[in-house]
Every structure is written in structure tokens, then in C-alpha cells.
Amino acid sequence: MGFVIVLLFELAILAAMLAGWYKVFEKAGKPGWAAIVPIYNIFVITEIVGRPILWFVLCLVPCVNIVIIVLLMIDLAKSFGKSPGFGIGLAFLGFVFAPMLGFGPDRYLGPAAQNAGPPTL
């Protein structure tokens, strides 16, 4: 019985996270379904934040991908007018921060990478 409760709880968290990412993609002018397609969603995020295709390729390299994903999430947060701390939250606690960004009042302001210099932590 406990297994079923844990499974339902995990499925609810997964559904909230996917719905949040779906809304984030729609706010950025991209198709929402792209958020649920593995690997393609990272490609779309690199487009949303304005980073070159090389960043997507670097996401496929083990160990390097961790750093690149964190930097992409920081850029994504900046693209919505949020702080770099929010971007770190997106990277490590996406199940909390993605619904906050997707269903919150924040608007997409444009690619953060084109408006700023090199990424900073």
C-alpha cells in the first residue's frame, strides 16, 4: 500500500513539472510539446536563451553537460527576468521552480544570452 502512495506522489510531482515546462516553452513562443521530448527539449532551451548550437552539443558530453545545463538554466531564468539564483533552482530543483516559472506572472523578455556577455555564476 505504501508503494502505491509513493508512486502516486511521484507521478503528481512529475505531472506538475511537465506542465510547468510546457507552460515555460509556450511563454517563450515555442511549442509546448517540445518540453516533453527528451534531448529535443534541451535544443529548444538553447534557442530560447539564445546560445549557439555548440551548447546543445556540449550537453551531450558527460560531466560537461552538468555545467552547461546549470548555465542554460541561469540564462533561462534571466530570459524571464529572474535572478541567477532562480536559475540554479531550475537546474537542481526543477520540479519546484519550473511550475513557478510556467504558471507564475513572469513574461519572456527575450534571449538573455544575446543581451549579456559571457555566463556568470
What does this structure look like?
- The structure is a single chain.
- The protein has 121 residues and is an all-alpha fold.
- It has one domain (2-115).
- Helix content is 67%, strand content 0%.
- It is built from 7 helices and no strands.
- The protein has helices at residues 2-27, 40-49, 53-58, 64-79, 84-92, 94-103, 112-115.
- α2 packs across α4 and α5 packs across α6.
- The radius of gyration is 15 Å and the shape is globular.
Secondary-structure map:
Elements: H1 2-27, H2 40-49, H3 53-58, H4 64-79, H5 84-92, H6 94-103, H7 112-115
Helix pairs in contact: 1-6, 2-4, 4-5, 5-6
The tally of structural domains comes to: 1
Instruction: Write down the overall mean pLDDT.
Output: 91
The major β-sheet equals: none
**Tally of separate helices:** 7
- Name the beta content range: under 5%
- Tell me the span between the first and last alpha carbons: 44 Å
